[in-house]
Amino acid sequence: MSDDMWDAPLEGETDSTPMLGDPEAERILAGAIMARTDLVDDLAVQGFDPADFTIDRYRWIWFAVEAIRADLNPGAIRWEAVDRQLKAWKADGTMPTTPMSLADLSQLYTESAPESASWAADQIAKKAVAARLIAHGHSAIIRGRSAAFDPDVDVAAAQTELDGVVGQAADDETITVGDVLADVLESATTKPTTEDRIPTGFIDLDGLFCGGLAPGQMVVVGARPAMGKTTFGLGLARAAAIQHGIPTLFESLEMGRKELGMSIVSAESRVPLHHMKQGIVTDDGVQRLARRAPAVKDAPLYINDNAHLTMPVLRARVRHLVRTAGLRLVIVDYLQLMQAPKAESRQVAVSEMSRQLKLLAKEFGITVVVLAQLNRGPEQRTEKKPMVSDLRESGAIEQDADIVILLHREDVYEKESPRAGEADLIVGKHRGGPTATITTAFQGHYARFVDMAQT
Predict the structure, then answer these.
(1) How far apart are CA 231 and CA 264, in angstroms?
(2) Cα–Cα distance between 218 and 220 in angstroms, integer?
(3) Where are the alpha helices (DSSP H) in 148-256?
(4) 203 burial via Cβ count (<10 Å: 0-12, 13-18, 19+)
């Protein structure tokens, strides 16, 4: 295929192809809003954007009605008032295009059909989506032809741009408090179901969270190095995917896939991790591995160990797995290792990533667990227990999180501690619920935390 074929216009398209639009629908809408000014608010609430007009003269009629309606009596705004506003904007340079003449405005007003306004707005919005889709296609072609094309960056960026093609609907969800009263009273007297919750594998923790982690939540698990952040994160993944069949994505920026796999299998089969790494698993261990292998193999647990993770790439991967596998849980290990966006400071960059992770959870209705490193605060205190304020690099992490769990093991600091083998899960923040400290057993040789309440 020759290069000139790539540069040829698409079928039915010429170099002079105009931007897609519906002039008749735009004309109807421009006349309708002069006859019924309340349509400006009604259509805006429904998500109509005047930027979707392709004919400037009609768009400026919308702006004029929007500007002057507050100073006039409710109802129709006659064309003379609109004409005066347009001429004033043209005179002071606000309006770059030539406004409609007084005669044209008069005719537009006379022929107005307010009952067709909703249909016209839908048509205009539909054509605008088509125009953005075409523009996105051309942008994708330019990215693909660029000598600097990077699949990880450019494909993810193109996918993000594609998400913006349709735009966000601005459905009005404003209600009075009385509208929710019946639901509040019912909830107050009915035990909540746990169908949409994700079990953590710890009875007391699930009890604290009303059955487990909820969709839309961002959960931060913070700890100093060597406390077992990854082990705890893998424990959440195992509880969700292997024990309950919940589709889960584990993003590892530190450990490789084989090392992760060994930790998962060790925890599930109770075969010592160091034996597996050294290749000296006994016959009894092999039998335990064989018993748990089918459950691990069939689990909807997805692992990615690409160390160069960016938010656009993560968002694209989550979108794909939500659509194809019903993804419900994402675990990122760990926040400070993610590729930060360009920003004026590291703190601002981490804040932006934290906010984007919270938005990811809300947008897709999933739970996002983010492992994060704490600063040296605990080591500088007499009592080594961590606090939420120890989250490294950004207070925005604490602000965005719905739940903050801090890991603490006394035997890391004091080898002869009477609490050797124990680990505290300190729930330092729980939006809308109580906080608590839950004690578990840390079995490092099996790469797992164990629920003491269960044992």
Answers:
(1) 9
(2) 7
(3) 156-166, 181-189, 203-208, 229-237, 243-244
(4) middle
Q: Are 441 and 450 in contact (CB under 8 A)?
A: yes
What is the DSSP track for 388-429? GGGBSS-HHHHHH-SEEEEEE-HHHH-TT-TTTTEEEEEEEE
Instruction: Decide if 260 contacts 422 (C-beta within 8 A).
Output: no
Is residue 333 a contact partner of residue 251, using CB atoms and an 8 Å limit? yes
On the question of a cis peptide bond just before residue 302, with omega within 30 degrees of 0, the verdict is no
Structure tokens belonging to residue 93: 């340079």
pTM over 0.85: no
Q: How far is Cα 281 from Cα 196, in angstroms, rounded to an integer?
A: 39
Question: CA-CA distance, 155 to 132, in Å (whole number)?
Answer: 17
Max Cα-Cα span within the chain: 95
Listed residue (319, 362, 359, 356) closest to 341, CA to CA: 356
Q: Which residue has the tokens 């002069």?
A: 34
- Stretch among 108-122, 250-264, 339-353 having the lowest mean pLDDT: 339-353
- List pLDDT tens digits, range 169-206: 444 456 677 777 777 777 667 666 667 889 988 888 88
Strands in 15-74 per DSSP E? none
